[in-house]
Amino acid sequence: MKTKKGEVTRNHIIQAAEQLFMEKSVSKVTISEIVQRAGVAKGTFYLYFESKDELVWNFMDHKFGHADKWMKEILLKGYSDEDICEIVKYIVSFVKKNITVLKMMHNVRFHSFLGIKRMEEKYMKRWVKPFSLWLEKGRLEGILKINDSEFMAHYLIITMHELFDRVIMNELPLSIDEVGDELKILILKLLK
Prior knowledge:
Elements: H1 4-23, H2 31-38, H3 42-48, H4 52-72, H5 81-97, H6 99-107, H7 110-114, H8 116-140, H9 149-168, H10 176-191
Helix pairs in contact: 1-2, 1-4, 5-10, 8-9, 9-10
């Protein structure tokens, strides 16, 4: 059973790890450094996490869990131009709100530590399913002009992910808002 104090300690360990991840590559951060920064004993760390690997996954869930909740609610969204633009607006807002963490994740090589395949399995697939169901509902109702809802869900999520990654890493001469504006136009053309 989780206690309030236990939850505070767990979050404190995650915050200490985040501070260290801001300073250096995730693979170079040690459990000893994390517990020292958190001010807890090493045994306390293992009460909450089996390994650094598990801590990193928990860190990501802690930071991005609200996106999961939002994706599960996407089936409640409509299909008007305004509804579709609202979805893109949420994604833009999510990226802007989490820009520091997203940059940090790229800079400290989360992908190489956790493995791209594992990250895609955990997050991309989890987000594609509800998005695909939402698209399929719109297709079946005759509102969306698409052939394959699952393909389109993968295409849109991967496209958005790659574009925002490039902006975050300063590889595109566009702002997050500019990418969002262009995505609204593109997605409306693709779906309608």
